[in-house]
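Sequence in, structure out.
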Amino acid sequence: MNYDCRKVKDIPLDITFSLMLNTLCRVKLIYETS
């Protein structure tokens, strides 16, 4: 799944799903910067 992490916050999602996406975003950022 490809998504823009900056846009995730603007999408009203189920809280669990939004937390999951948030975690994936952080992991993705860590991999991109390392």
